[in-house]
Amino acid sequence: MRSLDRYGPAALGFGGFVLFLVVVEILIRLGLINGYIVPLPSQVIVALERVIAEEGILPRFLLTAGEALGAGLLVALIGIPLGILLFEADLLRRATENWVAAFAAAPIVLVYPLFLVIFGRSSWTIIAIGTVAGLPPVILKTLEGLAGVRPVLIRVGRSFNLTPWQQFRTILFPAAVPTIFAGLRLGLIFAMINVVGVEFLINFGGLGPLINELSERYDMPATYAAICFVVLVSVLFFLAVERIEKWLRPAS
User: Which of 23, 45, 175, 231 is deepest in the core (most CB within 10 A)?
Assistant: First the structure.
């Protein structure tokens, strides 16, 4: 039973993914899905080896992962303190919260020419756009998590004469950790989308330019194989975030 509880969800998810690939393969072979647009999953699997051997995927993968890591770290280091600031400064929160929420829906990637002027055609442009795109959900979720702490916990802290810093460290922040990490996951999604998108647009970086190049060659199996490496970057970051959350949550 313990093994089932531990490995069951992962096995079910993997099995569902394999089943999905089999169904897509069958539908393409039956002509129900256009094979010129969506390649056979078996062709994509075969193309993975070719992409690794011929396209120098490892340095490209590491560059995109590094840009995503830089954007993700900046999102956390900037977004969480800003959320705490809005929680502590009620007037500032009321003045800016709606603007931050509106900013979350803005297509930041469209202003990439401005970032090119500021940072040049470099990884800094990609990291900056990814950071700006990922900040709003982290700020809002940090604010939501801190504001949602049960008042009884705060009163208990006051009854023990805790200082504001002690109350924040032992009560507010641990209680808000799940919500803050939900915001971090959303922020990472926004950052990753913009990192790869800007790489594609300015033809600079790792996996984005490779996907662009392969699609222009109309090598669809290799294009989808390269996209698999983008998904791998996302999976690795989400696993890292999950580990960090588990490390922080015992105190809550």
Answer: 175
Average pLDDT over residues 224-245: 86
Q: How far from chain centre, in Å, is Cα 39?
A: 26
The pLDDT score that the predictor gives to residue 74 is 95
What crossing angle do the helices spanning 41-54 and 2-29 adopt, rounded to 10°? 100
Gap between the Cα atoms of 158 and 40, Å rounded? 63
Q: What confidence tens digit (pLDDT) does each residue in 57-89 have?
A: 888 888 999 999 999 999 999 999 999 999 989
pTM summary value: 0.83
| Nearest alpha carbon to residue 36 among 216, 210, 220 | 220
Question: Taking a C-beta distance cutoff of 8 angstroms, is the pair 73, 134 a contact?
Answer: no
Provide the 8-state DSSP code for 251: G
Say which CATH superfamily domain 56-251 falls into.
MetI-like (1.10.3720.10)
The tokens of 155 are what? 């009163």
Q: Report, as an integer, the average pLDDT of 220-227.
A: 90
Asked if residue 129 lies in contact with residue 113, where contact means CB atoms within 8 angstroms, the answer is no
CA distance 114 to 27: 44
Give me the residue label for tokens 């970051």.
Answer: 237
d(CA 134, CA 167): 28
Give the residue extent of every domain in the chain.
56-251
Residues 236 and 232: their CA atoms lie apart, in Å, by 6
- Which residues are CB-contacts of 37 (< 8 A; sequence separation ≥ 6)? 220
